[in-house]
Amino acid sequence: MARVFISFAMEDRALRDLLVGQKKNARSLIDFTDYSVKEPWSSSWKTNCRERIKTCRGMIGIITPNTPKADGQLWELKCAVDENVPLMLIHGYSAPERKLATLPSVISGRRVNLWTEANVVDFLNRLG
């Protein structure tokens, strides 16, 4: 089972919980160990977070309109890019008006996938 870091804006905690909950569905093929940061850490959180990200097989970034203002999430995404951790971005919402039109520079030019079981399973399978 792959260890995966889930990056999300703190305002989007419910979406992270939903993703983690998907793997508990008996019919779901999604299976991973959630290694995300669930609460803000102390002043040394960046050091701790980088070490945690480096030990993961991949990262899933949940992208919403909250992402551009989420300094912690942006730092996590940049950390994954800098550390060459495989990164899959997914839209937190399917409604077009709730999708982020312009991506922050740290993930600019990257594809943001639809949040589907097939897309998540495909990413997890590529992690090995």
Q: What does this 3D model show about the protein?
A:
The structure is a single chain. A 5-stranded parallel β-sheet has the order 2-1-3-4-5, sandwiched between helices. The longest helix is centred in the middle third of the chain and has 12 residues, at 71-82. The protein is an alpha/beta fold and 128 residues long. It has 4 helices and 5 strands; from the N terminus they run βαβαβαββα. It has helices spanning 13-22, 45-54, 71-82, 117-127; strands at residues 2-7, 32-34, 58-63, 87-91, 112-113. The termini are close together. The mean pLDDT is 87. Strand 1 (2-7), helix 1 and strand 2 form a beta-alpha-beta unit. Helix 2 (45-54) packs across helix 3.
Global geometry: globular
Radius of gyration: 14 Å
Biggest sheet statistics: 5 strands, parallel
Question: Topology as H/E string?
Answer: EHEHEHEEH
Query: Which strand order spans the largest sheet, edge to edge or round the barrel?
Result: 2-1-3-4-5
Count helical runs.
4
Q: Helix amount, in percent?
A: 25-40%
Number of strands: 5
